[in-house]
Amino acid sequence: MRPMLNALALGLSLTLGLPAWADMQHARHVAAADHSSTLAEGLVKKVDKTQGKLTLKHGPLANLEMPGMTMVFRVQDANWLDQVKPGDNIRFLADRVNGVFTVTTLEIVKP
């Protein structure tokens, strides 16, 4: 009788506990997705079409836990290099792609 009670208790605890655990995991996942999609402000300093890179002076990059600085990024879409020029203000999202800092989203800020 004791093993049957243990099995019943385990089944009941899983039935009652899993939905709450799943809700907590979903909330964490949504918060992480929102946090990583925040666009940073940047100023284009240099465009290097032959290397597929932009030099950007940028504010903090929350998803990379990086303070503001000037650095070089690869771009996910080489066509973006034809759309920006030094002095342009942009909003962008960068991430590590195959270990390389890469701009994955880019918006030009219109004056």
From TrEMBL:
This is RND transporter. Keywords: Signal. Pfam families: CusF_Ec. Residues 1-22 form the signal peptide. InterPro entries: CusF_Ec, CusF_sf. It comes from Thiobacillus denitrificans.
